[in-house]
Amino acid sequence: MKISLWKIMCTGFLCAAVLLTACKRDQKIVIKVGDTWSPTHPIARSIDEVFKPQVEQKSKGVITVEVYHSQVLGNEQTLWNGVRNGSIEMVVVGSGMNSEYRPMLISDWPFLYRDITHAKNVWTGSFFDDFTKDFEKAFPTTRMLSVGPNSSRTFTSKKQLIGISDFHGQKFRMPSNPIHVGIATDLGASVQIIPLNELYNALKAGIVDGQDNGMVTVLSEKFNEVQKYLYETNHIMAIMELIVNAHFFDKLSKEHQKIIRDAAKDAAVWAWDEYIKSVDADRETIRKNGITVTQLTAKDRDDFIAKIQPTLTKLYSENSWAEELVNKVKNTP
Fold this sequence. Notes:
Layout: H1 2-26, E1 29-34, H2 42-58, E2 63-68, H3 76-85, E3 90-93, H4 116-123, H5 126-138, E4 142-157, E5 171-174, H6 178-186, E6 190-193, H7 196-205, E7 210-214, H8 215-220, E8 229-232, E9 237-245, H9 246-250, H10 254-288, E10 292-295, H11 298-307, H12 309-318, H13 322-330
Parallel strand pairs: 1-2, 1-3, 5-6, 5-7, 8-10
Antiparallel strand pairs: 3-9, 4-7, 4-8, 4-9
């Protein structure tokens, strides 16, 4: 009788353990993803069209991805703080953390890449893997999953802007970033710091003559309505990082971690490819809006780099890591 009772108890414990394991494995998981972009931006579309469906499908519905675009969960600084403290599971942010982690300045380094395809190869290859390890040491409450394109930055203005000499005396809005400010200053322009969500009205009112952003942003923010010239300088290839909170991520099963990592990398590759395809179409759309578009020639590019040497010299002198890291990027096939 004792043996039978013991067998019954063991069987009961075993069944409970199996059920508990199954419940834990099938427990619903929700990932909130926040960004600052409209749903039409390639990086935002990659979350909607690649990351979300791939994660939900491969996890067989165990993981649900909720996406919040256009600053619904806050501006970039709020998102960055949120993913670090765990109040939001995942975010897409730019280089707002570079004041805390100086090597992140590489994301705004002027004329770093040969072209957009080169930038894609850098941030989807071994350079990304090495960079991520150091990044996560600096920010141990985060995991960087992938890097996608923001856009290749161009200058626009309501005044003539078809060559380097045209910058002199113009007023440009630049982001609150010493590299961007330094570039405009070296070119002979005066600089004002204005939040992106206030920039359209500032351009319309003539508070500033122009600004610098990628063509995708020029269209999504409707700057083409209040500008007459676009100079396709491609002086900075801006990037966006998909970052997850480490405490949330590390508690997931290895299977679910792999699903999320794979989807993040696939989404980044998709976003790069979509962005590369969009450049010619965006240029044509901007031209059809009556804006004069001037593309940078090889000679103009050399002259541009020579003109911003004060900013480049300052960057190298203030950052001992810079030469090695820049060379590593430039030597990436």
